[in-house]
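Budget justification aside, the reviewers requested a transparent look at the raw inputs and outputs of the sequence design task funded under Objective 1. We therefore reproduce one unedited record. The lines immediately below are the structure tokens for a 275-residue chain.
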């Protein structure tokens, strides 16, 4: 698929999802059960699938999950409709390799709106090519499961929509699919935009990353972004007592019950000498 076609489809798809999410304002569509279903799915697909699995586990290898758990969470991340694991991981690794430069897919120097969403649907020379996907994510390409997920995205989304309709009708579909996706998108995009614009910088990095507390609150701890850019490999993003990091709490729990190991953290010396 060419970049031009992909950008067009991205723009149409994102517009349709946000338009359909507005149907939630119709009184007949509102049911508390649908809101609850959307909230649960938001955490499963965004908190577990994206923040824990796609980002901290697959992209940066900050920890290792037991394979059945890793694969299950990767399916949840795919249901966040932010791309399959290979494309998501390769794009994010390219971002770190060229953060806030012309080779960064969502370079903040091109503006807040560009870093937030425009990079997905406007001409973008830094958008990873097929060869770059293989170069930036060779570890995932080597696994048949992740190659298969590239083709399973739409069947998974359709299956979820059918299940939601069977359980709660159109109310559950609107809230559980479209409202959830719209909220999840902006929570993730704000890490690229707001957390490269607003907040404080604890560490000296060559990019514009910041620690933004309110982004951290809505993104399961991902908003401590300057910390993350200083130590990308770290499974923990909130280093100070007030830097709330729910995903790190979950990592500690998973380690305690022996579902995660090889948890990587910066040393005390690194934390003090990098400031």
């Amino acid at each position: 698929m060419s970049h031009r076609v992909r950008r067009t489809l991205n723009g149409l798809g994102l517009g349709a999802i946000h338009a359909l999410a507005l149907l939630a304002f119709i009184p007949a569509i509102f049911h508390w059960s649908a809101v609850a279903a959307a909230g649960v799915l938001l955490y499963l697909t965004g908190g577990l699938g994206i923040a824990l699995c796609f980002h901290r586990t697959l992209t940066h290898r900050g920890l290792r999950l037991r394979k059945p758990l890793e694969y299950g969470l990767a399916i949840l991340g795919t249901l966040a409709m932010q791309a399959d694991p290979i494309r998501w991981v390769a794009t994010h690794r390219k971002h770190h390799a060229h953060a806030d430069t012309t080779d960064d897919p969502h370079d903040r120097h091109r503006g807040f709106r560009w870093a937030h969403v425009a990079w997905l649907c406007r001409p973008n020379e830094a958008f990873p090519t097929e060869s770059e996907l293989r170069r930036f994510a060779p570890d995932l390409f080597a696994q048949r499961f992740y190659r298969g997920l590239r083709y399973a995205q739409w069947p998974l989304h359709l299956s979820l929509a059918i299940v939601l309709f069977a359980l709660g009708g159109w109310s559950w579909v609107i809230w559980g699919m479209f409202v959830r996706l719209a909220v999840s998108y902006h929570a993730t995009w704000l890490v690229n935009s707001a957390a490269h614009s607003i907040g404080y910088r604890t560490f000296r990095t060559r990019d514009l990353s910041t620690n933004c507390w309110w982004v951290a609150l809505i993104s399961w701890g991902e908003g401590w972004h300057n910390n993350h850019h200083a130590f990308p490999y770290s499974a923990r993003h909130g280093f100070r007592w007030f830097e709330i990091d729910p995903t790190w709490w979950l990592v500690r729990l998973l380690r305690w019950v022996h579902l995660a190991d090889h948890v990587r953290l910066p040393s005390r010396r690194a934390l003090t000498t990098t400031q």
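The chain has a mean pLDDT of 95. The two ends are 43 Å apart (CA to CA). Computational costs for records of this kind are itemized in the attached budget.
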